[in-house]
């Protein structure tokens, strides 16, 4: 009791509520300042939360006990709520409206607490207010039923419309600079109030509430509102996982301190504090010091199902650098010497080292250590591949605004809207299509046909020592341009070749991910873990690991030799629609139908970045070759560019008019190509988009960047197809752009 | 749908010894049916919980020089799921010789699902000529499913050698209920390589009794 008293006193002192503090101290009969000071300092230290919105868990726990004690003493019926999310719910249980209970309980509280109430109802309110200044945060997931039952305690359902329109009036009359920020409140409040009405089975009030106010919401929330309009009964809510997640997670809003003060003052003046309760229970207000944001800035960042991202969600260190390529000897061919110019000749005797690896001996501070995650060792075939890669890289065309790539389009004919996934190998030798009839078809792009290895009988007959043994093991009788792989029992939504071209992955609506061998063209393994459709899968750039994401809202990391996933990345509120590995294989980006993009650490499964800003489900992700940037495309037709290290949005490319299903950076990162359902491929200048990043303290602290409206400048070209949506893009090693899609006649 | 629900509701109300079916029974009937037919993905707290557990274990180290990195055989689909038995009741150990016109009991691979019970798409059937089943069959029951197999075998793509005369002895069917699912099987070399690693068992004697 004494400790909690100290804590309360300290807090009142910090909040300059001297009057209440004096009263409290007098009642508690504390001796002088020295005693209190001595006692207060350890407690005070515990209470000093971080500035600007960070909640200190120690202080919170103390205060929660205080407020919980107050709540219980008041005799309110929300003891259950108090037990679940202590700080939040208990504070919510002390609206000044409960005057009747207060009088009765005045005598029952022990010691100073009892006197606290009548003497300082404002004090306690001030306590709540000052506490909530920090933004009440409960990090743990509250028990679902407890949170749902929190809906029980609310006020008169018929007054909800009045509360909401009162708030609307207030916000519309506020100053321009604050209005944009405060308008962010409309949508979460609307949804929560509506859901409360539905949960408490006030159907007619819910319906009229919805009718009256749903038109006021922002245009980018229309899809959600449509889903919401179909939720009219309490039973409907139980089956909808996304809505449940929406209610149990806190909607994050970023508001400047000034705007927040304004809001708080207004809501506390009113006697009906229904809205205040909802704000405290369901919203997390991330307060920052500084200029309020403009509507344009806000519109760029909002849109996701759970609001924006908290600042501390994007503060973890991310190793976005690339792993060092191993140095090894490359025998110089005669034909290469001409291309080498003067460098090659003096180095004739010296073996040529890999250019990337030899740049610096020092470790790039942004690159992960080589052994951070176990990676498979390089086999001889891999080394040969790398040599080929380097040779091709030497012949690569340097792209730029003056030198645009040629685009070669592979059209799938007679697919009848059945083409659902495409992938091309890194050396552009094979192309695979996943279809809605659950087949996977592999074609050879080069004149060389696809062959499978011979039977065991024949293999034992060949000469293993001959030079061309790799040719001899192939069975000529099986040569064909097309191989069809059967096995899935549902449409195939994602395909991925392994970097060594030995394996092919495909994931499907039947919930499995299948590994196929490209040497025998048969299925090797079926990985079962998602029991729901799997929307995307990808091999790691080094092979061995692969990631899959599906309808069950998680992404899983697998290794080819484990039948169960190694990591589960849970956190999205809706289906994971797109999964990509970072070039250094240490991070995985997932895009989801909840309109956020998350970056996960493979080592420990933590979410290290949350990017909000898209207004529709994300369908394409692309990492830049240097690993620093991420480009994302969604159904809203915008391509957003993100700086991974700082966790900021650095660019917005407008131009497409329909869902963007394909994004790819050129081999050296100079050009970003995007392909969309609007039958176009657009090329953007990536170098220009990423230069001149302002990263001063304010932007890193608040995450607000003024995005320049330069989409038109960055657009280098728009290329239309003949009514063929673009499903896949691939830059060959020489920077020729390959695109793929299925011709659709409508 | 409505008939089913009402019948269920009648059962529930009679179980509760009520005189007539009322709204609660119907509600219960609807709920039970939707739980059976429509499942929704697990709730978020459950997912976070299992994710936390799974993510605690460190990533396993990768053994070098381990050839194709695949899960243990029982989790792969590389096993042959039937075996060809020689007429002479002698196990033919030489690979590559097709000795059998008679198809005997098929081994159903134990763990992975045998996907195709019903999809009409033709399977590429690659017949294993090596004798040796991956799983011990003692005491297990199997059922024969014939129709697709013969069609599939006949229409097997030229990429895989077909076995002539794959006859299924009708005497195998009947009391014992033997199942052969003719899924595709990986080609011979993998099965040949994997067989030495499989458990040895005396299989012939079991099947002779059929």
UniProtKB/TrEMBL annotation, chain A:
<feature type="domain" description="TFIID subunit TAF5 NTD2">
    <location>
        <begin position="155"/>
        <end position="283"/>
    </location>
</feature>
<keyword id="KW-0539">Nucleus</keyword>
<dbReference type="Pfam" id="PF04494">
    <property type="entry name" value="TFIID_NTD2"/>
</dbReference>
<dbReference type="GO" id="GO:0016251">
    <property type="term" value="F:RNA polymerase II general transcription initiation factor activity"/>
</dbReference>
<feature type="repeat" description="WD">
    <location>
        <begin position="653"/>
        <end position="685"/>
    </location>
</feature>
<dbReference type="GO" id="GO:0005669">
    <property type="term" value="C:transcription factor TFIID complex"/>
</dbReference>
<keyword id="KW-0677">Repeat</keyword>
<dbReference type="InterPro" id="IPR020472">
    <property type="entry name" value="WD40_PAC1"/>
</dbReference>
<dbReference type="Pfam" id="PF00400">
    <property type="entry name" value="WD40"/>
</dbReference>
<keyword id="KW-0805">Transcription regulation</keyword>
<feature type="repeat" description="WD">
    <location>
        <begin position="611"/>
        <end position="644"/>
    </location>
</feature>
<comment type="function">
    <text>The TFIID basal transcription factor complex plays a major role in the initiation of RNA polymerase II (Pol II)-dependent transcription. TFIID recognizes and binds promoters with or without a TATA box via its subunit TBP, a TATA-box-binding protein, and promotes assembly of the pre-initiation complex (PIC). The TFIID complex consists of TBP and TBP-associated factors (TAFs), including TAF1, TAF2, TAF3, TAF4, TAF5, TAF6, TAF7, TAF8, TAF9, TAF10, TAF11, TAF12 and TAF13. The TFIID complex structure can be divided into 3 modules TFIID-A, TFIID-B, and TFIID-C.</text>
</comment>
<feature type="compositionally biased region" description="Basic and acidic residues">
    <location>
        <begin position="353"/>
        <end position="364"/>
    </location>
</feature>
<feature type="region of interest" description="Disordered">
    <location>
        <begin position="330"/>
        <end position="382"/>
    </location>
</feature>
<feature type="repeat" description="WD">
    <location>
        <begin position="527"/>
        <end position="558"/>
    </location>
</feature>
<feature type="repeat" description="WD">
    <location>
        <begin position="485"/>
        <end position="520"/>
    </location>
</feature>
<comment type="similarity">
    <text>Belongs to the WD repeat TAF5 family.</text>
</comment>
<dbReference type="InterPro" id="IPR037264">
    <property type="entry name" value="TFIID_NTD2_sf"/>
</dbReference>
<dbReference type="InterPro" id="IPR036322">
    <property type="entry name" value="WD40_repeat_dom_sf"/>
</dbReference>
<dbReference type="InterPro" id="IPR007582">
    <property type="entry name" value="TFIID_NTD2"/>
</dbReference>
<dbReference type="InterPro" id="IPR006594">
    <property type="entry name" value="LisH"/>
</dbReference>
<dbReference type="InterPro" id="IPR015943">
    <property type="entry name" value="WD40/YVTN_repeat-like_dom_sf"/>
</dbReference>
TrEMBL record, chain B:
<keyword id="KW-0539">Nucleus</keyword>
<feature type="compositionally biased region" description="Polar residues">
    <location>
        <begin position="186"/>
        <end position="195"/>
    </location>
</feature>
<keyword id="KW-0804">Transcription</keyword>
<keyword id="KW-0805">Transcription regulation</keyword>
<dbReference type="GO" id="GO:0046982">
    <property type="term" value="F:protein heterodimerization activity"/>
</dbReference>
<dbReference type="InterPro" id="IPR003162">
    <property type="entry name" value="TFIID-31"/>
</dbReference>
<comment type="similarity">
    <text>Belongs to the TAF9 family.</text>
</comment>
<protein>
    <submittedName>
        <fullName>TAF9 factor</fullName>
    </submittedName>
</protein>
<feature type="region of interest" description="Disordered">
    <location>
        <begin position="186"/>
        <end position="210"/>
    </location>
</feature>
<dbReference type="GO" id="GO:0005669">
    <property type="term" value="C:transcription factor TFIID complex"/>
</dbReference>
<dbReference type="GO" id="GO:0016251">
    <property type="term" value="F:RNA polymerase II general transcription initiation factor activity"/>
</dbReference>
<dbReference type="InterPro" id="IPR051431">
    <property type="entry name" value="TFIID_subunit_9"/>
</dbReference>
<dbReference type="InterPro" id="IPR009072">
    <property type="entry name" value="Histone-fold"/>
</dbReference>
<dbReference type="GO" id="GO:0003713">
    <property type="term" value="F:transcription coactivator activity"/>
</dbReference>
<dbReference type="Pfam" id="PF02291">
    <property type="entry name" value="TFIID-31kDa"/>
</dbReference>
<dbReference type="GO" id="GO:0000124">
    <property type="term" value="C:SAGA complex"/>
</dbReference>
<dbReference type="GO" id="GO:0051123">
    <property type="term" value="P:RNA polymerase II preinitiation complex assembly"/>
</dbReference>
């Amino acid at each position: 009791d004494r400790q909690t008293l100290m804590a309360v006193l300290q807090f009142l002192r910090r909040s300059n509520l001297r009057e209440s503090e004096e009263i409290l101290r007098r009642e508690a009969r504390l001796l002088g300042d020295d005693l209190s000071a001595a006692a207060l300092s350890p407690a005070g230290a515990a209470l000093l939360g971080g500035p600007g919105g960070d909640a200190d868990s120690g202080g919170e726990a103390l205060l929660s006990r205080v407020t919980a004690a107050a709540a219980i003493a008041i005799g309110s019926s929300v003891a259950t709520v108090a037990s679940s999310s202590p700080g939040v719910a208990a504070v919510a249980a002390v609206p000044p409206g409960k005057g009747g209970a207060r009088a009765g309980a005045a005598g029952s509280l022990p010691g100073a607490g009892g006197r606290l109430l009548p003497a300082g109802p404002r004090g306690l309110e001030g306590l709540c207010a000052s506490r909530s200044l920090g933004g009440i945060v409960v990090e743990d997931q509250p028990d679902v039923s407890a949170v749902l039952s929190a809906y029980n305690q609310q006020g008169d359902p018929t007054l909800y419309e009045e509360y909401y329109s009162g708030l609307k009036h207030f916000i519309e009359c506020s100053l321009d600079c604050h209005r944009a920020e405060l308008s962010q409140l409309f949508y979460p409040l609307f949804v929560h109030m509506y859901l409360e009405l539905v949960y408490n089975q006030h159907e007619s009030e819910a319906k009229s509430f919805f009718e009256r106010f749903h038109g006021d919401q922002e245009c980018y929330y229309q899809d959600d509102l449509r889903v919401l309009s179909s939720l009219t009964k309490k039973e409907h809510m139980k089956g909808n996982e996304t809505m449940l997640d929406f209610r149990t997670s806190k909607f994050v809003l970023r508001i400047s301190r000034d705007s927040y003060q304004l809001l708080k003052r207004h809501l506390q003046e009113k006697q009906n504090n229904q809205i205040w309760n909802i704000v405290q229970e369901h919203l997390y207000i991330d307060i920052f010091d500084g200029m309020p944001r403009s509507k344009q800035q806000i519109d760029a960042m909002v849109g996701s199902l759970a609001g924006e991202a908290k600042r501390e969600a994007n503060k973890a260190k991310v190793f976005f650098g690339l792993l060092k390529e191993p140095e090894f000897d490359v025998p110089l061919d005669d034909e290469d010497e001409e291309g080498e110019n003067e460098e090659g000749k003096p180095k004739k005797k010296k073996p040529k080292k890999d250019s990337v690896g030899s740049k610096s001996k020092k470790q790039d501070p942004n690159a992960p250590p080589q052994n951070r995650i176990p990676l498979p060792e390089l086999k001889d075939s891999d080394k040969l591949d790398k040599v080929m890669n380097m040779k091709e890289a030497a012949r690569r065309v340097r792209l730029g605004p003056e030198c645009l790539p040629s685009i070669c389009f592979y059209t799938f004919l007679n697919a009848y809207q059945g083409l659902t996934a495409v992938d091309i190998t890194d050396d552009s030798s094979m192309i695979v299509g996943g279809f809605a009839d659950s087949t996977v078809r592999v074609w050879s792009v080069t004149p060389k046909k696809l062959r499978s290895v011979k039977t065991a009988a024949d293999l034992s007959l060949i000469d293993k020592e001959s030079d061309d043994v790799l040719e001899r093991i192939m069975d000529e009788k099986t040569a064909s341009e097309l191989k069809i792989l059967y096995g899935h029992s549902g449409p195939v939504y994602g395909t991925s070749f392994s970097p060594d071209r030995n394996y092919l992955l495909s994931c499907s609506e039947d919930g499995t991910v299948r590994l196929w061998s490209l040497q025998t063209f048969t299925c090797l393994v079926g990985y079962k873990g998602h029991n729901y459709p799997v929307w995307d899968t990808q091999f790691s750039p080094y092979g061995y690991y692969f990631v899959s994401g599906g309808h069950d809202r998680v992404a899983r990391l697998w290794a080819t030799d484990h039948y169960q996933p190694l990591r589960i990345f849970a956190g999205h509120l809706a289906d994971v629609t797109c999964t990509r590995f970072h070039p250094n294989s240490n991070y995985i980006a997932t895009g989801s139908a909840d309109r956020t993009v998350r970056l996960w650490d493979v080592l420990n499964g933590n979410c290290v970045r949350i990017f909000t800003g898209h207004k529709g489900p994300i369908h394409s992700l692309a990492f830049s070759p240097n690993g620093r940037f991420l480009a994302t495309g969604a159904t809203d037709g915008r391509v957003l560019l993100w700086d991974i290290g700082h966790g900021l949005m650095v660019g917005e490319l407008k131009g497409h008019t329909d869902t963007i299903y394909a994004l790819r950076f050129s081999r050296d990162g100079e050009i970003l190509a995007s392909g969309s359902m609007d039958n176009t491929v657009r090329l953007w200048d990536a170098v220009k988009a990423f230069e001149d990043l302002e990263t001063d303290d304010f932007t890193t602290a608040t995450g607000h960047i003024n995005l320049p409206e330069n989409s038109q400048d960055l657009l280098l070209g728009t290329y239309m197809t003949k009514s063929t949506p673009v499903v896949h893009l691939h830059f060959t090693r020489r920077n020729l752009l390959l695109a793929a899609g299925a011709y659709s006649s409508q | 749908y409505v008939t089913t629900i009402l019948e269920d509701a009648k059962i529930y109300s009679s179980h509760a010894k009520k005189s007539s079916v009322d709204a609660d029974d119907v509600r219960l009937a609807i709920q039970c049916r939707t739980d059976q037919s429509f499942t929704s993905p697990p709730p978020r707290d459950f997912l976070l919980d299992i994710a936390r557990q799974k993510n605690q274990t460190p990533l396993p180290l990768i053994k070098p020089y381990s050839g194709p990195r695949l899960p243990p055989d029982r989790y792969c689909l590389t096993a042959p799921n039937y075996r060809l038995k020689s007429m002479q009741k002698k196990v033919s150990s030489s690979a590559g010789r097709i000795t059998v016109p008679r198809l005997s009991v098929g081994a159903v691979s134990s763990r992975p699902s045998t996907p195709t019970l019903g999809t009409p798409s033709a399977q590429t059937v690659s017949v294993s000529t090596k004798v040796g089943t991956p799983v011990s069959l003692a005491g297990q029951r199997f059922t024969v499913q014939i129709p697709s197999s013969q069609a599939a075998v006949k229409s097997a793509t030229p990429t895989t050698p077909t076995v002539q005369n794959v006859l299924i002895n009708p005497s195998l069917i009947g009391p014992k209920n033997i199942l052969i699912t003719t899924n595709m099987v990986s080609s011979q070399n993998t099965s040949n390589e994997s067989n030495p690693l499989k458990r040895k068992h005396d299989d012939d004697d079991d099947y002779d009794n059929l």
